[in-house]
Amino acid sequence: MQRQWAYYRLYVTLTRARRGLWIIEPNSQYLPPNLSDDWQRWLNSWAESETVPVLSLQAIEEKPERLEAEGDYLKASQLYEQAGMTADAGRCYEKAGDTKSATRCRAKQAEQVGQPLQAAQYYEQATMYKDAGRCYYQASRYADAGRCYEQARNYRKAAECYKLAGMYAEAARCEAMAAPPTPPPGSSGCVLVLLWQLHQPLLPALQGACWCC
Questions:
Q1: Range of the domain at 175
Q2: pTM of the model
């Protein structure tokens, strides 16, 4: 028990020391055996550990609430968003003048609480059309979903949504946009096909040739 108490006091003294450390024990009989060797070994290891780079106290204690109170809204909003506190992040982004990021956080917050329609509207305001289309689809607003997917150039998904909305002309237009382009007449591919049809005996000699229009 005496040794444990002495080590506890030594630990507290070492961890609370700022610049210098003096340990004075006027009565050596109260010191446990081998304590001198133990604390000397401890001090040596402590000096070695001081060379390891550590985070500053300010970085460790950096809190979004404190940053917001100090007016550093942009940094506070980033920390809030990293912590998943999207409502607080949106408020700080708005105070920082970043309207798009504030709207994005409102969209995430609405999606988290199960409001896909409101989330879709916020995503669309933030020009995040793919996310807006996804949320409109969840809200069964297929025409709006198709419009947003088309804005995001996801034509296959847009065509699917337009079909669900009964907008077949828009669906056909998006399907045409999603289809791979066909080579125009006179392209190199057509020239090779024509040569194969007209001069089949010459095909081995033409293999590996490069034909340009």
A1: 131-180
A2: 0.55
Residue that terminates a domain, selected from 113, 142, 169:
113
User: Are the beta carbons of 42 and 74 closer than 8 angstroms?
Assistant: no
> Does residue 20 fall inside a structural domain?
no
Evaluate whether residue 118 is within a structural domain: no
User: Span 158-182, mean pLDDT?
Assistant: 90
* pLDDT single digits (tens) 86-114: 888 889 998 889 999 999 999 999 999 99
Number of structural domains in the chain: 2
In this prediction, residues 116-122 reach a mean pLDDT of 95
Q: Are 79 and 67 in contact (CB under 8 A)?
A: yes
**Is residue 107 assigned to a domain?**
yes
Maximum pairwise Cα distance, the chain: 114
Q: Are 211 and 193 in contact (CB under 8 A)?
A: no
Chain centroid to Cα 194, Å, comes to 53
